[in-house]
Amino acid sequence: MGTGSLERELGAALPGKVRTDRTACAAYASDASIYRRVPLAIVEPEDDADVALVVRAAAEAGVAVTARGGGTSVAGNAIGTGVVLDFSRRMDRILEIDPRAHTARVQPGVVLDDLRAAAAVHGLTFAPDPSTHSRCTIGGMIGNNACGAHSVVWGTTADNVVELRLIRADGSALTATSTGSDDPELDARLRELVGEDLALLRTELGRFNRQVSGYGLQHLLPERGFDLAKALVGSESTCGIVTEATVRLVPTPTARALAVIGFPDVYLAAEVAPELAAAGAMTVEGMGADLLAALRSRPGRESAGQALPDGHAWLYCEAGADTPGEAERRAGELARLATSRIPGANSVVVTDPGRSRELWRIRESGAGIVTRLSDGGEAWPGWEDSAVPPESLASYLRDLYALLDSHGLRGVPFGHFGEGCLHLRVDFQLGTEDGLAAYRSFITEAARLVVSHGGSVSGEHGDGRARSELLRHMYSRRARDRFAEFKRIFDPGGVLNPEVLVDPAPLDAGVRPGPGHRALELTPVHAFSRDRGSFAAAVDRCVGVGACRNLDTGSMCPSFKVTRDEVHSTRGRARVLAEMLRGESVVDGWRSAEALEALDLCLSCKACASDCPVNVDMATYKAEFLHHHYRGRPRPRAHYSMGWLPVWTRLMSAVPGTAGAVNRLLAARPVSQLVARLGGIERRRKMIRFAPRSLVRRLRRREPRGGETVVLWPDTFTNHLSPEVGEAAVEVLEALGYRVVLPEGFVCCGLTWHSTGQLGTARKVLARSLKTLAPHLAAGRAVIGLEPSCTVMLRDEATELLPGDPRAKRLAAQTRTFGEFVAAHDGPLPFGRLDVEAIAQVHCHQEAKGSWEPDRELLERLGVEPDVISAGCCGLAGNFGFEPGHWEVSQACAERELYPKVREAGADVLVLADGFSCRTQIDQGTSRRATHLAEVLRGALRSG
């Protein structure tokens, strides 16, 4: 059977579960590693029968099968050129929790945090907790033998697996237990394999907890009870595809406290780490000052880590107990142990869960943060998971730094110091053949180094494509032969995840950021100042850690949270763009239909620009792509109707009575439907209403009064669609003593042209606006924005679109949100208390740029208690929700939290939304009118 026949067979047998389109295949071409393998097909199985069918068909066709969960594997474990089985979408059920037996039975696609939440009801948890806990799956953890921070006390995934159900390479089912399997013939062959080399298995394997490289054959030793379930953990789906697992749950301490200890350097932190583990610490997590510097280089994170004690390296030591007081006492003892041992060390003990969470977030974001060094340089995995016996960590670290220096490389260390496991991202130059040769040279020497310290090339991420070749440096030929025989017993045809562990691919083969990955480089319109002017470098920011796949936390990525489709995640889109730039699997360059499809459901909410650990900004990438994609050819009609909205509204405002006449016409359904069709607008959307008189006209005869002059930015939405918001803002600012003026002449930030990728027009509009604003900017006057997305354009995008214009920099520096300006007012505030409850839909751009805190402060002063919508974007997102094909996603985003809360709110509950899009979505979806902060403050003036 050929590959074409296989695709047809799978498509016919599993309708709706098989994807062979180039867009999906590009999205699945990589994981969180540096490797790239474009699959033939992706299958989303629903049960064991689906998996068995795929494996049998693939084996018959001679096509490889690779299992994938959250796709957060760092060693290239979850990618392949054959069929990729994505378990995260359909086989994600918790089948049973047995609180008496302390076990759970789960499917492989269950996200770790979901299992932990379900177990927490019974005071239990699944112990392994890698930093990707919010999106990694149990199946992936079993594949890699994942560990996490608490393995100091609770062990690896292997230590917490009771039973596995698998599909073997011939499509048959197998149950592996702690005493063997349900296949006597298989057990006999495995006992024979082990019996031939008992001494070797006892001396080369299982020497310390984090030795996860190779197969875990030590678990098959007689003294370990012939535990086949544990032996298969860490086999990276090379021996069978896990379809169900029974795992052990452990009781969680009632109370926890965190001791964070600062050290003069990372070596001293590593030196004392084993003592802290032996003293009963539940975690002994380490990081160096380089990680904090990298974090502080991120926009909006300049003051991160202020709660850390002084030092150039830190250990996070958690203590647990039955009472908060006892937990705090134990944490204090750990801190005193460290500070008494190491001169210059100091500590802080934290008992508040919120403060602990903030501190942990720094460490957990390490894998993403350090892929960009503090100077903007790129850093990559590859040698990110070595481990040594904990007592050897300090000496290994010193030698590793010396090795880095000898190769002219830099790295940022962090990891599980209490167990001797070190994570490291290094500034390899992978884009050339010479760079790959240097990469191979360093990795080979590093492998020899870690072995000389009695260590392992992998400590929890698995060997994958990054380190399987290195097993020859770590294990004897005889041991590797035993690995190969173990693989052959389960998979004689080499169908399951080939090129991993046994018969490995070269570690420098198929490197995603390797030679040729920037074949389509060009000078972009955006400056991409943080990426040295390169669109490709910006796309390379995505290293695949998968924070965009969080379903229940954070604002990123709204379309993925609704569809659960990898293509619609920030990572999936970045992968498709990367394939477009390479020009092999995705062809046609900027005209690529695949890239257009991947970006279509991006709401341009900018959540990824802040929530992503490496600040991928997909909204900007989309605008840049659309500019080149449609350059010199017709665009979708919505780009003309919505993208040119500032022009249409201005024309209507120019002739008195026109706006009212248009509103009356659009109120007739046949007319509105015709206009929607002609304008390329979703027909289920209600038409917006235009203000009979614009804000500029309303204020034309108003005599400015007050002291210090400030400029109110008359954005299109406020000026022509909701001028009452602008009037309220003027009243408030004047009550504060300011003289409010509007720019003399037409100004616009260019938002609608930017979001539709009409960047040439956006630049012209911005340049014209800067000319109009020049006198105000020269005078140092504040420019106050009312529409959050327009404010972000002025502060962030203007300098990227006009990087050589000093006026753009001044505008960015002088622009304030309305909330920021009022909250910073130096003097008494003339507001009375309102004492009401409120639901607040923070505009996604405002949330992304972290500028809503002043609004919250003002509301709390007025006695307004805001229940802030945590689901992120409202779903309308400017032109997005008005475009055909977006209705379902737009509504589903709002139904996640916004619509239900607004519908349930009483009439006396305020609904707050500063964004015109947000207010429109709320009005059209719930019939409630949402209020701008300026209107709330005006109401408080009248009650004061």
Please explain how this structure is put together.
This protein is α/β, with parallel strands linked by helices. The strands form six sheets. A seven-stranded antiparallel sheet has the order 16-13-15-14-18-19-17, sandwiched between helices. The chain has a six-stranded antiparallel sheet with strand order 5-6-11-8-9-10. It has a four-stranded mixed sheet with strand order 1-2-4-3, covered by helices on one side. A hairpin with a 5-residue loop joins strand 8 (161-167) and strand 9. It is globular and about 95 Å long. The chain starts with a helix and ends with a helix. 56% of the residues are buried.
What's a concise summary of this model?
The protein is built from 43 helices and 26 strands. Helix 10 (266-278) runs antiparallel to helix 15 (393-406), helix 22 packs antiparallel against helix 23 and helix 32 crosses helix 43 (933-943). The strands form 6 sheets. A 7-stranded antiparallel β-sheet has the order 16-13-15-14-18-19-17, sandwiched between helices.
Keywords:
alpha/beta; 944 residues; 43 helices
* Bulk shape: globular
Largest sheet, if any? 7 strands, antiparallel
Mean pLDDT: 94
Provide a count of the helices. Answer: 43
- Sequence of strands across the biggest β-sheet: 16-13-15-14-18-19-17
What is the element layout, followed by pairings?
Blueprint: H1 3-13, E1 18-19, H2 22-27, E2 41-43, H3 48-61, E3 65-68, E4 83-86, E5 94-98, E6 103-106, H4 112-120, E7 124-125, H5 138-144, H6 151-154, E8 161-167, E9 173-177, E10 180-181, H7 184-195, H8 198-204, H9 228-232, E11 241-248, E12 250-251, E13 255-263, H10 266-278, E14 283-288, H11 289-296, E15 313-321, H12 324-341, E16 346-350, H13 353-364, H14 366-369, E17 386-387, H15 393-406, E18 411-416, E19 421-426, H16 433-452, H17 464-467, H18 471-474, H19 477-490, H20 535-539, H21 558-563, H22 570-582, H23 593-600, H24 608-611, H25 618-629, H26 637-641, H27 645-654, H28 658-667, H29 669-679, H30 695-699, E20 709-712, H31 716-721, H32 723-735, E21 739-741, H33 751-755, H34 759-778, E22 783-785, H35 788-801, H36 806-814, E23 815-817, H37 818-823, E24 836-840, H38 844-848, H39 853-861, E25 864-868, H40 887-895, H41 898-904, E26 910-912, H42 916-926, H43 933-943
Parallel strand pairs: 2-4, 3-4, 20-21, 20-22, 22-23, 24-25, 24-26
Antiparallel strand pairs: 1-2, 5-6, 6-11, 7-12, 8-9, 8-11, 9-10, 13-15, 13-16, 14-15, 14-18, 17-19, 18-19
